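Page 47, continued from p. 46.
Same chain as before, 202 aa.
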Amino acid sequence: TVLLGKDDGTVGMWDVKTDIEIRQFRGHTGSINRVAFSPDGKFILTASADRTARLWNVATAKGLRRFIGHAENIWSVAFSPDGKYVFTGPNDGTVRKWDRQSGQELQRYTDTQEISPMAVSPDGKFLIIGNITGEARLWKINPAPKLPIFKSTGIVNSVAFSPDGEYVLTGDSNGVVRLWDAGTGEKLRDFIGHTAFIEDGV
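Result:
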């Protein structure tokens, strides 16, 4: 199955084999900017232009929780690897960590720029955040001091960790994918050849 967020604030779940929409998630009042499955596939998290993120039950399409407090559109959402925490990233440059079950805000990670993509490392210890200035910043989730900054030449549109958490990949608006050492921030390699910006990568 795949999830498709729509401008009308709904999310559709589609069966890729039959090309049939099998479920709809309704509740947002603004367009959907990002969707994410929980690691166990039982929940989805949605980011919306209505300045909220929502947690949903996949099996029933029932809304379970709203994450409220951001002053701007939410552009990015992510789960921790164990599914206990969720992260929301808006235009205001402040990523928030929430308890999935209670909805309580636990921590903030403040960038000075508009946030686009973000990802949690496989071990759940680090958060990488991309912004419109061409930087991807690495944070230690608990506690939360800033760690290396991965500086690109264009807007960072995509970020991802390697499965072992040792490396970071960034893709930017100049069509360049870069490989970095997650611990030191050292750039290891450029992958050049794309003629358009990089939208996503894993």
